[in-house]
Specification:
Metallo-beta-lactamase, Chain A; 7-stranded mixed β-sheet; alpha/beta; 5-stranded mixed β-sheet; 322 residues
C-alpha cells in the first residue's frame, strides 16, 4: 500500500510538473502571438530599404500591416514611405528604422489612401516629420478615414488605441514632383490614382528603385474597391514601365522586377479592360462578361479565386460609365 501511495504521489508530481510546463508553453506562445509582427527593413540598394508585409488579410497579429513600406536614408535625414495602419505600429516602424540608421525620419510620403498607407501619420507628425501626399488623396482620406477605423476596431482591438486619421501636412499637385533630401532625388509620380484616388509611386532615379504603393501587387491578386479605377491605374502602370526601374518594391508581395510586376499586375489590368471593354461595346450582360473572362493566366496569384470575379465585375461596371 505504501508503494502504491508513493507511486501515486510520484505520478501527481509528474502531472503537476507537466501542467506547469504546458502552462509555461501556452504563456510563451501567447506572448509570441502578442508580438507576432516583426518589422525589419532589409536593403534593396545602398541607403534604400524595404519592409515586406504579410500577404494575407488584416489580423490582430499583423496589426493590419499587410503591405510593404520603404525607408530611404540620406545624410540629412530619412524618408519613410507609408506610415502603417495604427499609431502603435508607427512607433514600432520608427524603432525598426533606428536599427538601420541614426538619422531621424524627416519626411513621410503616403502613397495612397488605404489604411496601412497613412493611419500612422499622427505618430510621425508628433515626432516632427513632414507628411507628404498627392492632393488627390485628400478627399478619399477624409471620407474613408472613419470607415477604416470602424473596420479595424473589431480586428485590432487594443492595438488600435490612440490611432486617429491625421492628414498629410504637405499636398502635391503635379503629375510629377521632384524633391531632394540630403542629395537624394525623390520623384513622386501620380497619374490620377488607381487602387485609391491618391495612389502615387516614389521613384529614386539614382538607385533605380521604385516604391509603387498599391499600383503593383505581385504574388497575390490585386484588390479593387469602390474608389478604385482601372483606367488611371493602368496609366500609372504605364508610367512605371517608362521608368525601366532596376528594382520594384510593390505595394504587396516580394521585392521584384518590372517583368514580374507586368505579369502579376499590368497584364491583369490590360486583360480586364480589354475583355470588359469588348463586352460593354457588344452589349454582353454583366454575368456573361464575368463568366467568360479568362482567369487562367492569373490563377497562380494568391486569393485569385475570391478576387478575380470581383475585379471583373467592378471593371465592367466602371467601363459602362466611361
Amino acid at each position: 500500500m505504501a508503494g502504491q501511495t508513493h507511486g501515486r504521489h510520484r505520478l501527481s508530481a509528474w502531472a503537476a510538473r507537466g501542467a506547469a510546463v504546458a502552462l509555461g508553453l501556452a504563456l510563451a506562445i501567447a506572448a509570441r502571438a502578442a508580438q507576432a509582427l516583426e518589422i525589419a527593413f532589409e536593403p534593396v540598394a545602398p541607403g534604400v530599404y524595404a519592409y515586406v508585409g504579410d500577404t494575407e488579410g488584416r489580423t490582430y497579429d499583423n496589426e493590419a500591416l499587410n503591405a510593404n513600406l520603404g525607408l530611404v536614408v540620406t545624410p540629412q535625414g530619412a524618408l519613410l514611405i507609408d506610415s502603417g495602419a495604427t499609431r502603435q505600429t508607427a512607433q514600432r516602424i520608427e524603432q525598426a528604422a533606428r536599427r538601420v540608421t541614426s538619422q531621424p525620419i524627416r519626411w513621410v510620403i503616403n502613397t495612397g489612401g488605404q489604411d496601412h498607407r497613412w493611419l500612422g501619420n499622427g505618430y510621425f507628425r508628433d515626432q516632427g516629420a513632414e507628411i507628404i501626399a498627392h492632393a488627390n488623396a485628400r478627399a478619399d482620406m477624409l471620407a474613408r478615414g472613419p470607415e477604416h477605423l470602424r473596420a479595424l476596431a473589431p480586428v485590432l482591438k487594443d492595438k488600435l488605441d490612440g490611432t486617429e486619421p491625421v492628414l498629410p501636412t504637405r499636398w502635391l499637385t503635379e503629375a510629377d514632383t521632384r524633391l531632394d533630401l540630403g542629395g537624394v532625388t525623390v520623384q513622386v509620380i501620380h497619374r490620377g490614382g488607381g487602387h485609391t484616388p491618391g495612389d502615387s509611386m516614389v521613384w529614386l532615379p539614382q538607385s533605380g528603385v521604385v516604391f509603387t504603393g498599391d499600383v503593383v501587387y505581385v504574388d497575390r491578386v490585386l484588390g479593387m474597391h469602390a474608389v478604385s479605377r482601372s483606367r488611371p491605374w493602368l496609366a500609372t502602370f504605364e508610367a512605371l514601365e517608362a521608368l525601366q526601374p532596376r528594382v520594384v518594391v510593390p505595394g504587396h508581395g516580394r521585392v521584384t522586377t518590372l517583368a514580374q510586376a507586368r505579369r502579376d499586375t499590368g497584364d491583369l489590368l490590360r486583360a480586364l479592360r480589354a475583355h470588359m471593354g469588348r463586352a460593354v461595346a457588344d452589349g454582353v450582360d454583366l454575368a456573361t462578361a464575368v463568366r467568360t473572362f479568362d482567369t487562367a493566366p492569373f490563377r497562380h496569384l494568391k486569393h485569385a479565386e475570391v478576387w478575380l470575379p470581383q475585379l471583373a465585375n467592378r471593371t465592367y461596371l466602371e467601363m459602362e460609365q466611361e
